[in-house]
Write a structure and sequence with these properties.
The complex is a heterodimer. By secondary structure, chain A is an alpha/beta fold. Chain A has seven helices and nine strands. In chain A, the strands form two sheets. Chain A has a six-stranded mixed β-sheet with strand order 5-6-7-3-8-9, sandwiched between helices. In chain A, strands 2-1-4 form a three-stranded antiparallel β-sheet, with helices on one face. Chain B folds into two domains: about 35 residues; about 200 residues, MetI-like (MetI-like fold), CATH 1.10.3720. Chain B is flat. Classes of the chains: A alpha/beta, B mainly alpha. At the A-B interface, strand 5 and helix 2 of A face helix 6 and helix 7 of B.
């Protein structure tokens, strides 16, 4: 008998308004599914309500109508602007979620050190966020998320504030972590090659208000060769689709 | 392997901080020098030092007491209101209340508490509390949405949110609110002492010379300046220096 895991997330005809502009719709009739263990990217132009969508998924704001089925209990998020607590050191930031969960200090620090080592920052554990570079802050954010053993990891444009070299290194780390942990990852992104390189599925959003234009599966075998012809073909096809939307 | 990272911004901040520190010491040295010159010239010869010291001590004690109450009250109210969903409703109400001039309420304090120590302290509390409350509330309201969301996602919910997120987030605001509040507090305490003519430095300068400008008044003002300087150097400067870790 085969047991199929239920999808990690199902959105069905979700409508939501902007938090600060009650009149305008941010999301209109959003429906898509995130399979458990999959890497799903959401791409779309500015004004597609990507951040609002993330907040709805995480239950940080209520949708106006529609259904959100959440088959996850420990979501974590990596933020575009890092959102590290500036008064805590890198180690304390990573241990924050564990501390809120009531874990003993020695245990949570052990786990936090482990996660910092996993993202290559074990030597910077006593540094405050202000003394870290953008890439290092993003890695601390990733370690903070991994520390709580999430069953859904949401990433809001995690590479957009990073230089190319740092972004490439972080992408490689992310893929390794995704494969190791068997995580479900939902990533908001605006870089088409990144979405093709990393994702199993891509949800393309249109703007004003945000709506699903298309969902597509990326069938390229892993590990993906970003210099191969099929890769460029997929990038071209997706670029064309997005150009038509915008 | 990178062992440490240092940014230009941090160095620039340290340079500016050291420069400010140096200037403060220079000004203080000038004040002490001027006081010594006046002393040597015999200007303070008729000052009754014991009475003056007692008066300055009493004013400082009242201010310290009032600040402790106002800080506890202001920070607690601001954290609870900032944590609750009623912050947007209560903010304008607080704004109206803080705009009522403290001295306009002075007759009410006298009516209910008489010419007492408690009256002066509570009157000072009523003026110190606002800058602290508003600084903390503004810091909470203006926190970045991402930081608020991160706190929620990683479990800072319920009352834990106050202790582990809102309180440290507000720390720099508590300091700046306190510094402004204490500056207003000196005025309130001394003003209340002058009006009620009970005791303390306000009553001392009122009684020593009707014109208000006398060697005793000058000596007292210089004494208060020294106290302000010492509090600044020993309390606020180290705390402000530490608070740079709390800035986003």
């Amino acid at each position: 008998m085969s047991t199929t895991k239920p999808p990690a997330l199902v959105l069905s005809r979700v409508n939501a308004r902007f938090a600060d502009e009650k009149q305008a719709f941010a999301l209109k009739d959003i429906s898509f599914v995130v399979p458990a263990g999959a890497f799903v990217s959401i791409i779309g132009p500015s004004g597609a309500g990507k951040s609002t969508l993330m907040r709805v998924i995480l239950d940080l704001m209520q949708p106006e109508s529609g259904t959100v089925v959440r088959n996850f209990s420990r979501p974590a998020m990596v933020f575009q602007n890092y959102a590290l607590f500036p008064w805590l050191t890198a180690l304390e930031n990573v241990a924050f979620g564990l501390r809120m969960g009531g874990m003993k200090r020695s245990e949570r620090e052990r786990i936090a050190r482990e996660k910092l080592k996993e993202v290559g920052l074990e030597h910077l554990e006593s540094h405050f966020p202000a003394a870290l570079s953008g890439g290092q802050r993003q890695r601390v954010g990733l370690a903070r998320s991994l520390a709580i053993s999430p069953d859904l990891l949401i990433m809001d444009e995690p590479f957009s504030n990073l230089d190319t070299i740092t972004a490439e290194a972080l992408k490689a780390d992310l893929l390794r972590i995704w494969e190791t942990y068997g995580l479900t990852i939902l990533m908001v992104n605006h870089l088409i090659p990144d979405a093709i390189e990393l994702s199993d599925h891509i949800v393309i959003l249109g703007a004003h208000p945000g709506h699903v234009e298309k969902t597509l599966a990326v069938t390229l075998p892993r590990p993906r060769d970003i210099r191969s012809e099929p890769f460029f073909e997929q990038v071209d096809r997706l670029t064309e689709t997005i150009r038509k939307i915008s | 392997m990178v062992r440490s990272v240092s940014h230009g911004q941090t160095r620039a901040w340290r340079r500016a901080h050291e420069e400010r520190h140096r200037r403060t010491w220079l000004i203080m040295a000038g004040v002490v020098g001027a006081a010594l010159l006046l002393w040597v010239s015999g200007y303070f010869r008729e000052v009754t030092w014991l009475a003056l010291l007692g008066a300055v001590f009493q004013t400082t004690y009242r201010l310290a007491f009032a600040y402790a109450i106002a800080a506890a009250l202001g920070v607690t109210i601001a954290l609870i209101v900032g944590w609750s969903p009623f912050a947007d409703v209560l903010f304008p109400l607080f704004d109206i209340l803080q705009n009522v001039p403290s001295f306009a309420l002075f007759p009410l304090f006298i009516y209910f508490l008489g010419y007492t120590n408690q009256m002066i302290i509570l009157f000072a509390v009523s003026s110190i509390v606002w800058p602290i409350l508003f600084a903390v509330l503004t810091a909470i309201k203006s926190a970045h949405t991402d930081l608020n969301d991160a706190a929620t996602i990683f479990g800072a919910r319920g009352l834990r949110r106050i202790r582990y997120y809102l309180a440290p987030l507000s720390f720099p605001a508590i300091l700046t609110g306190s510094i402004v509040g204490i500056a207003i507090g000196w005025e309130s305490v001394i003003g209340a002492e002058i009006i009620s003519n009970t005791s303390g430095f306000g009553a001392f300068i009122k009684n020593v010379d009707a014109s208000g400008v006398s060697p005793a008044a000058i000596a007292g003002a210089l004494g208060i300046l020294v106290i302000v300087f010492i509090i600044n150097r020993l309390v606020w400067a180290p705390l402000l220096s530490n608070s740079k870790h709390y800035a986003e």
